[in-house]
Amino acid sequence: MELWETMLRSISAFALMMFLARLLGKPTIAQMTYHDFVAVITLGSITANLAFNNTISIRILLTSMLTFTGIAYLLMVLAMKNQKLRSWFSGKPTVLIQEGKIMEGNMRKLKVTLDTLNQELRGKNFFNIQDVQYAVLELNGSISVLPKPDCMPVVKKDLHLKGQTELAFPIELIMDGDIIEANLQQNNLTTEWLQAQIKKKGLSLKEINYAVISTDGNVYFDEYKDQIKSPIDKE
């Protein structure tokens, strides 16, 4: 009987957290600002008790969970309507590099080391810190980087190229070897057309792991057999 109760409580806790996550919305999950962090940790603790702690009644745990959800939702609404409250609840982006100079005071306040800063810059493909004009620590913990003018990559607009084609959103056709029928229908494509594209590549459906129409309109196929003679980091 106790095992069944634990299973039921666990299922209920999972369902509730899924509902509350959808209620609070994607920004709470993606950005994880100060009040979002507090809300998520608290709700996670309450949910764990709901699932495993049989000594506390479900009614009390549900009341506590709904109260904290209401607080989190209210703070989110207030933050959207009031800039000062938003700054206090969520914090502000912090400049770590300004005009090519490292802001040591800001880094000390945020407990960010040079090793961490360099690691984040490398993650943005900046291996030389002297190439960075501005680096800003965003509310969600990521670092945005603006390179110095002479280190910015050249884009087509800089070369004044004409006749540029507009890029489209990629359309996945095959995933894990299975044809995605819904994507074909939504884009007025047929299975026969896809089979013809596969045949052009000299392949069969069972050989293909993934297929997608890329942003430039070309069809890309990834085979199960990669034909790489010396793969890196092979497990």
Fill in the keyword field for this structure:
flat; alpha+beta; 9 helices; 4-stranded antiparallel sheet; single chain; 235 residues
Commentary on this structure:
This protein is an alpha+beta fold and 235 residues long. It is built from nine helices and eight strands. It has helices at 2-24, 26-31, 34-52, 58-81, 83-90, 104-110, 114-123, 181-186, 191-200; strands at 94-98, 101-102, 132-137, 143-147, 171-175, 178-179, 208-213, 219-223. The strands form two sheets. Strands 2-1-3-4 form a four-stranded antiparallel β-sheet. A hairpin with a 5-residue loop joins strand 3 (132-137) and strand 4 (143-147). Helix 1 packs antiparallel against helix 3 (34-52), helix 3 (34-52) runs antiparallel to helix 4 and helix 4 (58-81) packs across helix 5 (83-90). The protein is flat. Mean pLDDT is 77; it is low at 26-30 and 231-235.
